[in-house]
Design brief:
elongated; 2 domains; 7 helices; 42% helix
């Protein structure tokens, strides 16, 4: 299980991890051994994939610091480097404004008030006029990865770009859903900058309208 989660966090394998280790070893002025930095990077990467709360507070201050591997400031430094690395791998590039928006959405979604519909939304759930509200880009992908057809089959998803909507000033992300064989099912829209965690649509029909 751990190896599969690590593959999701670091699809480039050991090379990706060691590139990060060497980078952090230099940036932290050799304060820690490369083995310690590698352990911290692996823990942070797996935590971002597995934990519901992906915030720096949860992963570094609550989860990592009691192990006393690195101090809090350096732990936060490595955390941000891992997030930046994931951003670059997920989106094929890096720009400071995009990364800052991405980084700031990695907040705690535990204990929040669930709100499946955005204020002023209208039309079908998942339409551009009624986007699915989710807290954080990583959580968007976690949500999409859980979608299933009524027969239990997985649903593939591909991001098609950013859009605007008349119900919010926030950016809306569009995704095409398809079967494993490539047959397209629908296009849905997600707003990943909302303090909400959707409960609807763990299964989808061909029109993405089946609700649990």
């Amino acid at each position: 299980m751990a190896s599969k989660v690590r593959e999701q966090a670091f699809p480039g394998g050991n090379k990706q991890i060691m590139d990060l280790v060497n980078q952090q070893y230099e940036e932290l002025n050799h304060r820690y051994s490369k083995d310690v930095i590698a352990e911290v990077i692996n823990y942070i990467g797996i935590g971002i994939i597995m934990f519901q709360d992906k915030s720096a507070h949860r992963i570094v201050e609550v989860g990592l610091r009691p192990k006393n591997l690195v101090n809090n400031e350096d732990g936060l430094h490595i955390y941000k480097a891992v997030v930046r690395n994931m951003f670059e791998n997920k989106f094929g590039g890096y720009n400071e404004a995009g990364f800052n928006a991405f980084y700031e959405t990695l907040g705690n979604i535990e204990g929040i008030q669930v709100n499946d519909t955005m204020p002023g939304a209208y039309g079908e759930y998942g339409d551009l006029s009624n986007p699915i509200p989710i807290n954080g880009i990583f959580n968007s992908y976690a949500y999409l990865d859980r979608l299933r057809l009524p027969n239990g089959a997985k649903v593939k998803h591909e991001r098609i770009g950013s859009f605007s909507s008349d119900i919010t000033d926030q950016i809306i992300d569009g995704y095409v859903l398809s079967k494993e064989d490539g047959t397209e099912l629908a296009t849905i829209y997600i707003c990943p900058y909302v303090n909400a965690s959707p409960q609807k649509h763990q299964k989808v029909s061909s029109l993405y309208k089946q609700q649990e």
